[in-house]
Sequence to fold (348 residues):
Amino acid sequence: MPDSARYWQAVCERDAAFDGRFVFAVRSTGIYCRPSCPARRPLRTNVSFHADAAAAEAAGFRACQRCVPNGQSPAQQLDALVAAACRLLESSEATPTLEQLAVRIGLSPSHLARAFKARTGLTPRAWAAAQRRQRLEAALPEADSVLEAALQAGYSGTRALYETPAALSPAQRRQRAAGERLRYAFAACPLGLLLLAASARGVCALLFGDDRETLLADLRQRFAAAELEEDPQGLGDWLAATLRQLDEPARAVHLPLDLRGSAFQQRVWQALQAIPSGQTRRYGELAEQLGSHPRAIARACASNPLGLLVPCHRVVGASGALSGYRWGVPRKALLLAAEADAGEREGN
Fold:
C-alpha cells in the first residue's frame, strides 16, 4: 500500500477526507476500519493498510461494527437522510415541524437540525419556504393572477408574498430582477472557472467558463436589471460545497436554489435533479416522462442557469452520444466520467 506514513497520519487524525480511499486493519483484533473511525487508536506496529473493504476481508479481517467500513460512511448516511427530509418537505402540503420531520427521518430534532443546516445552509422550515417561493416563481409567468400563482405554490393567499422585505413584487420578477441585489463569486475548478451567483433566496446561477469577463457578461445578460456585487467571502461556504461535489460527485451538495423559469422549464429541471449521479437519461426518455418533445427538453436543458446543481449534463442523445452542452461537450464528458468513476469506487 503506497504512502503508509500519510495514511497513518490520517488514521491518527481521524481524517474523514480519506474515507473511501483506504481502510486500515488491526492484527491484534482482526478488525478493519475507516480512517475516521472514532475507536481508540491501535499501535502502529499492529496496523496494515488495504485499498478497500474487499481487500481487507480477503486478508482475513472483519468489518468494524462502529464505523461500518463496508457500507455507507456516517457522512453519507446523513447525506441520504437530509435528502429524504428534503423530499418529505417538498411533498408535504403543510410544512411539518422539526419534531415531526425528525420522527419521520429517524434522528433527534437537534441532530437533524445540525445535519440539515450543514448541508443546505438553511433550517428545514427555511428550506421549505425557499422551495415554496421557487414554485411561486414558476407559476407567476403563466398564472392569470398573483393570487392564482400563490395558491398553486402552496400559499394560503397573497399576504405572505409581501411580508418579507427581500421579496420582489410580481412586476419586478417580470423585469429580470429589477431592484434586486445578487452576490457572485468566482472559483477555479477542474472544469476551468466557475461563477456562483445568489439572491436572497438561494443560488440563482452556476456558470462555467474560461475567463471572468465572459462569465460576468453571461450573468449580466441573465439578470440585466439586477445590482451585482462580488462577494467571495460571503459565498465562500457555498463555493466550497460546490467544489467538493466536483471532487466527490457521489456526495451531492444540497444548497437552496432560486430557479427562475417557465412552468415547463421548472418541470424539466426538477426531472434533471432526480437523475442519480453516475446515470444518464436520453432526451426522448425525459420527453416521454413529461409528455413533451425531445427538442423541448433540449431547449429547457440549454436554458438551465445552474450547471452541476441542476445536472443537465446527465442528458444524452438518442444513441447515447453526449450531443450539446451549454458549457461545452468537453466539460460534459469530464463531469460524466468523474461521476462514473465515483460510482465504480462506491460499488467496489
Observations:
- The chain has four domains: 4-63, 74-173, 181-247, 263-347.
- The beta strands are 23-26, 31-33, 47-50, 62-63, 181-189, 192-198, 203-209, 227-230, 281-282, 315-316.
- The chain has a mean pLDDT of 84.
